[in-house]
């Protein structure tokens, strides 16, 4: 029996590869002779680079870049053998890099992300996969574009400083010194956010508060982003501000589409295509996936839901092992053949998270035992 184990990470407890190993350990106690394939998955957010590194190899490159407050930090990105770079923007401008007191999207910058991209271009890559998610910024890519060579000036011809609030002062854009290798590089942006750049559902209104913005600052930032899009249009750049995903990562989606001609697509689809997930599913007899919390949203672009749809399209049985299940009829809601929560007993959240590996292993053992019993009963 060929068993494909392809889960997402369990947030705050286990990386995707650890979930794979826990499931395999449980199943192996019942089916020691099965042919196991481990394929950790991600949806384009945190952990995507690690997943692709496990599946495809490549090498990590560490470098010093600027964090959201323009302080030096060490960040890394993945270089694959086919001249592809995988960059998670949170490495350089992630919210986790700041304390609660330091959060201020009026001044935080995406400059470090641009430094990662520029370095990848200098490495000779022809394709860059960018995972959007977890940013501390709301600058619509102002810092990123500066790091790639663009210049931005106010009404007095003075260069803009860093931060989303600076965009309100923009008068002139000079793209003549933009990194020359951008034109020959394909950008694929893994993004499941559908928000436009501005407005009630835009970057500032929806994501600004969690990055430290007050209601008054949200209004200022939204106006600044709208002004940036207007000035960009006046300089001949295509208007992407109302495109789905333009508001992702504080407007980085807009910058990458407008100035780098990036294609935004589902994070799960991007990862699935890159690791040839459908080929793995087609060759398996049983597919097992999972995620920390399975709910009604799981069928809407998340890893578990995407794998379920792909397995069903290939007529493969699909099992989900999850941390918790928050839907009244999980099988009907998500399309799985079996859905199993893994928490074994009531406990504190800290203990549940700390015992995640053992809980998943035990659940996998019980699922495998049930399959074995079914086989013996004919």
Helix content percent band: 25-40%
Strand order of the largest sheet: 3-4-5-6-9-10
Mean residue pLDDT:
93
Unreliable spans = none
Total of DSSP H or I helical runs spanning 4+ residues: 14
Largest beta-sheet characterization: 6 strands, mixed
- The percentage of residues in β strands lies in 15-25%
Number of strands: 15
State Rg: 22 Å
Structural class: alpha/beta
User: What is the CA–CA distance across the termini?
Assistant: 17 Å
Run of helices and strands: EHEHEEEHHEHEEEHHHEHHEEHEEHEHH
Shape: elongated
Protein architecture, described:
The structure is a single chain. The longest helix is centred in the C-terminal third of the chain and has 21 residues, at 356-376. The protein has helices spanning 16-28, 48-56, 90-93, 111-122, 142-147, 203-207, 215-234, 252-260, 267-274, 277-282, 303-313, 330-334, 349-354, 356-376; strands at 2-5, 35-38, 59-66, 72-80, 84-88, 127-131, 151-153, 172-174, 186-190, 263-265, 286-289, 293-295, 318-322, 324-326, 338-341. The protein has 14 helices and 15 strands. It is an alpha/beta fold. The mean pLDDT is 93.
Short description:
This protein has helices spanning 16-28, 48-56, 90-93, 111-122, 142-147, 203-207, 215-234, 252-260, 267-274, 277-282, 303-313, 330-334, 349-354, 356-376, and strands at 2-5, 35-38, 59-66, 72-80, 84-88, 127-131, 151-153, 172-174, 186-190, 263-265, 286-289, 293-295, 318-322, 324-326, 338-341. The protein is α/β, with parallel strands linked by helices and 378 residues long.
